[in-house]
Amino acid sequence: EEAVETAAATPEGLRIATVQVSPITPELRDAIDFTGFKSGGPNALIELPVYGLNERQDLYYLIVPVVNEGKEEVRNLEGRADFYDERGRLIWTEEVFLTHLPTRLQLNPPSLPNQAEPQPELSEEASNYPLYYIPTNMGLFVFAVPDPAVAPQVKSWTLTFLVSQV
User: Fold this and answer.
1) 77: buried, middle or exposed (CB in 10 Å: 19+, 13-18, 0-12)?
2) What does pTM read for this prediction?
3) How remote is the C-alpha of 122 from its chain's centroid?
4) What is the mean pLDDT of residues 46-72?
5) How many CB atoms lie within 10 A of CB 125?
6) Which of 150, 1, 146, 9 has its CA nearest to residue 79?
7) Per-residue pLDDT at 1
């Protein structure tokens, strides 16, 4: 591994994405009159980004998908989440590396390919289930505020991309 300097930047085409995942088919959802998950969207959808307080663990969580629709691969991608209380005061900051799905061991440090990279081919059966298809130009940031004294105070967050300055 090579240590590199990163700094706040937003490369062309890099953005937060909205992703909907459904673990059941529309036919099953209609047959059982399913109205949605408590922590997700209607129609049996789990929608990302997802965030909130897990009261059982006294933990505030934030899961944010990002997509690279630019012309170039984004190298050494990290994210910094700043968490704020109801008055807008910064109360927690966390930096993490991108999680790339599927895990690609050759990408170290974490980088996010662009959309021009070949996408995996799916069987006809799997193509109807978005849960199994995450484009290669998409990754996730997973943040947490694990301090039980701070987590319940979080009311908002911001995400800053940190990229290689090489």
Assistant:
1) buried
2) 0.75
3) 22
4) 87
5) 8
6) 9
7) 39
